[in-house]
Amino acid sequence: MSKTAESVWNNCLAFIEDNISSQAYKTWFEPIKAVKLTDNALSIQVPSKFFYEWLEEHYVKILKVALTKELGATAKLVYIIRMENTYGNKQPFTEKIPSANRSNLQSQEVDVPLKNKSPELKNPFVIPGIRNVKIESQLNPNYNFESFLEGESNRLARSAGLAVANKPGGTSFNPLLIFGGVGLGKTHLGHAIGVDIKDKYPEKTVLYISAEKFTQQYIESVKKNNRNDFIHFYQIIDVLIVDDIQLLSGKAGTQDVFFHIFNHLHQNGKQVILTSDKAPVDMIDIEQRLLSRFKWGLSAELNHPDYDTRVAIIKNKLYRDGVEMPEDIVEFLANNIKTNIRELEGAIISLIAHSSFNKKEITIDLARKIVDNYVKHTKREVSIDYIQKVVSDYFQMDVDTLQSKTRKRHIVQARQLAMFFAKKFTKASLASIGSQIGQRDHATVLHACKTVDNLSSTDKQFRKYVEDLSKKLTL
Ligand code: ADP
Ligand code: MG
Hints:
It holds the Pfam family DnaA_N. 52% of the residues lie in helices and 11% in strands.
């Protein structure tokens, strides 16, 4: 019997169903339709670009195994992204080829060769004739300059990156050190420079590596007794991009080897690009001689994006995903997630996922729920120390007074409030709260919480204390 798209896919599904949770199977595999089988390529239709990305990220391995079982080693998988027009009556954004037989649908075919998508850097040291080895750049093509939106917060870093990409090794920005907080685009910008250089100078050897992986490779090379090969490998690179360089702190051996590599590259006019979550002056446990080299070139900071940039980033993401979202929701997101672009993107993805699975429109209520989740998870937990400090300040006493054994009414109240908020805002047990607030036992803390509850419903002045303090603690 000859194979059809459907029969092949059904066999794949049977295999996949046996190997993943039934929830995951329902969510991610049931909605897929097999569309056609040509040669050894199976085309499957998925409901959205988000869906496709999710499959790629989480299930590409099992898909590969299943499909190879069915079609042999040359199997290929083609995704057809079907975008239904569910967001208002505007046409969804599409990048391509409407599928011929269904004119009311937009689709997008993505050809995915079933090979390892992000090949590990092959242990370069065991390959003889190292100079002829083609080095995989490890760059993510989606992290490019075009998708890296410009704003006040990143202007310097972005233009320095562009300058370096135009003339790698030929500007005074060597090394270029990009620093800034979590989720502000360091990794993206690092890749973008590499991608642009690869584009303009295909013959140049570009390598992106995280400091973490660099460290692992180094340790491995020491174990295997080929430290020199390791150094040699890195010295033949034209453009070296090392991400999260702060992770070298405290690792003397790795710093030492990096120092040698850096010097060699720099002396030979090769470009080095570094990222870090701290400015050089704030890096700790990094050798002075290395730190001073970090400062040779340019240090450019990525700051928190301003409101307009946040809006632009949201809209760009929506546009690329082919999703429409009402303006007020875009504004709501931009107003509520300010300090981390990754969180901003995460919230958008959740919103799209929720609305497309539940076939619901994206509403401000849904947005609020999702933002709450995001912001709550990532907000640092207030500590009991901090609570005691805020409460003492509020009542103009010091923390020692608040913790003291005195039975003076206003001090007792302050202490009880501190216990109440510790219970409310931290995950600490009653016993642990008691021991941190003046060595009391858990019964005392429980009593304090009840007292605060009672008083705030009977005493107006007291309720004001609770409200004021609540605000201060959640700011
Ligand atoms: P970091 O390495 O600083 O923690 P990333 O480079 O991983 O941050 O960025 C987090 C996310 O935010 C990525 O998905 C990235 O594409 C996105 N991002 C950051 N800056 C921008 C920007 N200026 N324009 C568009 N997307 C951005
Ligand atoms: Mg990063």
